[in-house]
Write a structure and sequence with these properties.
Blueprint: H1 7-31, H2 42-50
Length: 69
């Protein structure tokens, strides 16, 4: 598995996933309602942490700059 997520893309994904999860858990503890759609937040968080996105592969797309890997 070759890394195909660059530094900026990675930071955005981790921030976005973490923010969505944080808002969801605050909402859950306040109201007691669980939102199934919050599980989508795990996708950008995990892909950002492992620096590999399966959606980029068929399109041969990469946000890694030369010398960054």
């Amino acid at each position: 598995m070759k890394c195909n997520i660059g530094k900026t893309d990675r930071l955005i994904r981790i921030w976005l996933g973490g923010s969505i999860l944080a808002v969801h858990y605050i909402y859950y503890f306040v109201t007691g309602y669980y939102c199934v759609w919050a599980n989508i937040a795990w996708i950008p968080l995990i892909t950002g942490l492992i620096r590999w996105c399966p959606v980029y592969v068929p399109f041969k797309f990469s946000t890694v700059k030369e010398g960054e890997e």
